[in-house]
Amino acid sequence: MDAYLPIADHGIIGDLHTVALVGANGTIDWYCCPAFDSPSVFAAILDKDKGGHYRIAPLEDDWTSKQLYFPDTNVLITRFFTPGGVGELQAFMPIARTGEERHRHRLIRRVVAVRGSVRFRVELQPRFNYGRDPHETLQHEHGVVFDSPSLCLALQATTPIASDDHGVHSEFTLHAGESVTFVLEQVERGYIPRRYEEEETREAYERTIDYWRLWLSKSRYRGRWREMVHRSALTLKLLTYQPTGAIVAAPTTSLPERIGGGRNWDYRYTWIRDAAFSLYGLLRLGFTEEAGAFMDWLTARFREGTDTTGDPLQTMYGIDGRRELPEETLDHFEGYRGSRPVRIGNAASKQLQLDIYGELVDSVYLYNKYGRPIYHEAWMDLTRIVEWVSENWDQADEGIWETRGGRKDFTFSRLMCWVAIERAVRMARQRGLPANLVGWMKHRDDIYLQIMDRGWSESRGAFVQHYDADILDSSLLLMPLVKFISPTDPRWLMTLDAITDELVSDSLVHRYDPREFEDGLEGEEGTFSICSFWYVEALARAGRVDEARLAFEKMLTYANHLGLYSEEIGRSGELLGNFPQAFTHLALISAAFNLDRELG
User: Fold this and answer.
1) DSSP codes, 448-494
2) Residues contacting residue 370 through CB under 8 Å, at least 6 positions apart
3) CA 503, CA 486: separation in Å to the nearest integer?
4) How far apart (Å, rounded) are the C-alpha atoms in residues 167 and 231?
5) Neighbours of 458 (CB within 10 A)
6) How far apart are alpha carbons 58 and 80 in whole angstroms?
């Protein structure tokens, strides 16, 4: 198990179609091509022997490394410190400028000797289609072509490459000022590798730096935590699928919520509930182009009509908008540090999760307010969804946490149904749009009164996870954030205190206590980082600003060395779950904005 690099010891690079995880040891152990949800080429992070990898590192054993991003970019630099000198590995994926370039997905790695001399070794062992497809290695003068049934990749280098069993390797020595470049790209069958000149790759390096710096310069954030907010923004941009504007929840699958546990899921899709948070974050930062593209993707989803279950929306979709995401397990993979099963696809796409309607309508409301006014056809489609919510809000569902222990009357699901109708009422009134206002307001008020009656537990002195139970749930931290209740309401302050006492530890927040709630899954899990940032906002809005700032600063210490977060944080502070997690970085941006405002 020592062969698995900690999840935290990775950075990511990408080209707005897919990303690669680059370890601090110089290994790319996760890469799907040509898109986020394509089958993997390198998946050593899920099986060190069968997954495939691409490693560039010093040949000697006695070395250390450090990673950094070139300032204000997603160009990743890994620096190696050896007894003989210092080497640098620059990794990046150029952003396509033309239609032809979009099909290349170039992964460029430049190896440079900074001081003294360093001897390097390169190993590239692809394993196509999650290690299930064979491939042929074709040697040429300036590189090799890996030919599999579904994908062809070419590795082109400025140094000789030798073939070995199902892969290639190379060893070379660089002296101060010297460099070697490796370009891995998608090619057509029959392609002959060419020599990439140093000038060409240096130009690609500089163009990529310029792209990211120009993009980030549009940010309007000028608050106290600019470095972390901008790193979160750059990460969100990397997780955006350029052809459709969709943002994946995370670029990985089956990184465990607990080492050795079975809570391992595929997050390479787009969740409707991410919409409001994504649009809010992008709009607040000033990235209206990205917000507009994601809004177009969302509008297409609610214009499609009902799915096979009769619901207007699914909980999640493919980045291209497809509905079918069948779940299967890769039984030949042992999983990260033995954490089985390894899943691809996600069966939760067919669950009933009523909260997504609140997040959807709230995202339309935000974009209508801060971006572009909603147009007639989209409004008419949206009213159909609001009518459906008005008729179907009072039923059990699987809830925000996608539990597999049966449907419950989740308080959070009711809360977000209230948000869906309340935001629709606001838009109709503000714009004078046609709407069933009398009917909508009645249903809105019915939901409000039911939550206050059945979602509140007198014995617990708090709002609870689901009706007829006394279980706490950190999703309810959003109650004041969505303006359902005043942040200083006595009921809310009692709930906040209860969550603080039972679900919070050193700023880290659990979703719920799995010992109290039967969620249909085995094993424990870590704390959820998004909940920790919700907690910061709830404290700040309640006037407990000093507590909020301390909790926020503590959360910043749980980021990895590059400022990236996974989904969860384990007992000893290790990052767990899929990485990096878009939802976490969105919540960080929101918490920073609101904390800045409260601090003045």
Assistant:
1) HHHHHHHSEETTTTEE-SBTT-----GGGGGTTTTTSS-TT-HHHHH
2) 283
3) 22
4) 35
5) 7
6) 7
Token match 């009509």: residue? 305
Half-sphere exposure of 531 (CA within 13 A, CB side): 26
- Joined tokens for residue 225: 């935590």
Residue with tokens 């801060």: 370
Identify the bridge partners of residue 163 per DSSP, sorted by sequence position.
168
* pTM (two decimals): 0.95
pLDDT digits 0-9 by tens, 318-377 = 999 999 999 999 999 999 999 999 999 999 888 999 999 999 999 999 999 988 999 999
Structural element, H or E, at residue 496: helix 490-503
Amino acid at 217: S
The mean of the pLDDT values for the chain is: 94
* Residues written for the chain: 600
Apex 340 CA angle, 334 and 345, nearest 5: 105
Closest CA to 124 of 104, 154, 152: 154
**Residue 271 to residue 402: CA distance in whole angstroms:** 12
Three-class SS state of 404: coil
Could you give the C-alpha distances from 110 to 18, 62, 140, 195, 261, in angstroms and in order?
Answer: 20, 22, 21, 14, 38
Distance CA 128, CA 153 (A): 10
382 in helix, strand or coil?
Answer: helix
Distance of CA 519 to the CA centre of its chain: 23
pLDDT digits (tens, 9 = 90+) for 221-261: 999 999 999 999 999 999 999 999 999 999 999 999 999 98
Q: Which residues pair with 119 in a beta bridge?
A: 173
pLDDT in tens, 29-47: 999 999 999 999 999 999 9
Tokens 């062809």 belong to 152
Q: Which residues, at least 6 apart from 109, have a Cβ–Cβ distance to it below 8 Å? A: 56, 89, 90, 91, 181, 182, 184
| pLDDT tens-place string over residues 253-264 | 999 999 998 889
Q: How far is 30 from 51, CA to CA, in rounded Å?
A: 9
| Rounded CA separation 563/568 (Å) | 14
Q: If you ran DSSP here, which 8-state letter would residue 524 be given?
A: -
Nearest-angstrom CA–CA distance, 362 and 422: 9
User: Rounded to a whole number, what is the distance in angstroms from the first to the last CA of the chain?
Assistant: 48
Residues 166 and 136: their CA atoms lie apart, in Å, by 7
CA 450 to chain centre: 34
Which helix (DSSP H) or strand (DSSP E) does residue 169 occupy? Answer: strand 167-175
- Tokens 């939550």, located at residue: 451
- DSSP code at position 148: -
Q: Name residue, tokens 């204000």.
A: 72
**How far, in whole angstroms, is CA 436 from its chain's centroid?**
37
